Amino acid sequence: MAIGLTFSLSFVFAQERVLKLAEDKKYEMYFVDVAIREDSFPTDTVRGKFTISWDRDLGFLIDDPEIIQNLKNGWVGEPGQMVGCWYDYFMYLIEDGVVVDEIRINERCKQVITKHGVYNYTDSTLSQVDRSKKITVANVEFESLEFGRNFVSDVLETRGIYIPGLSDKDWYKYGGSMIVKTKRRNIDKLEVQITNTIREKFPNESFAVWFLVCNNRFCIFDVYCSEKLGSSMTDWEVYRNWSRFDPKILLISKTDVQMKELIEKYAR
Predict the structure, then answer these.
(1) What is the distance between the alpha carbons of residues 70 and 110, in angstroms, rounded to a whole number?
(2) How does pLDDT run across 35-53, given as a tens digit for each residue?
(3) How many structural domains does the chain have?
(4) Host H or E run for residue 120
């Protein structure tokens, strides 16, 4: 009896809430079927400016506070390791109108990947959620960087339409990236040294440096920058030449009314 009790308590303590939600925030959950992320939908070219593919059937929304609270309390999992499964849904967690997490869900493997970690769950809380509230999802790919930047700037100022996945190292800010190689030494300071060297030589250029990996002899870093800066990078050995990012975004919205207005505005 004591052994059974000990096992039971250990199991309970191993469980964690999948959703880390604050009590004083307003949340929405946009579930985007992985199919639309994989570009399996037909695309339409809009006046040579961009291409777009739509989905109004596969994705769904949870915005009822009671349902969200039930998910927060009941959806639990045990911290684990990533398994060899792909995803069924990318769930974008909206907190007070801002995308704060991309939660990847595989319902067959019952695994969830969040910014807080990987969880394996066994309960059926998620499977019982009503999925009838559909959303509009669109993949948009731009013909030019400048056009895409203007489009993104407009969307970021539009309430009710979200662009999940934008980051400080995305195409709309830098245009492209390259990889530079340097000797392995003072690893903790290398990123700062590279950043300072570029800043001193090119004070008016926008760029960002990210450490990638080191081996016993050298380290490599990603440098996000313009093509002009990329072609001027001579202080380090170039591991991979500068290449342009694909100017592309994912859009999500409750309805397609605002989305259509935005598309029509930029199609003129």
Answers:
(1) 18
(2) 876 655 667 777 778 888 8
(3) 2
(4) strand 117-120
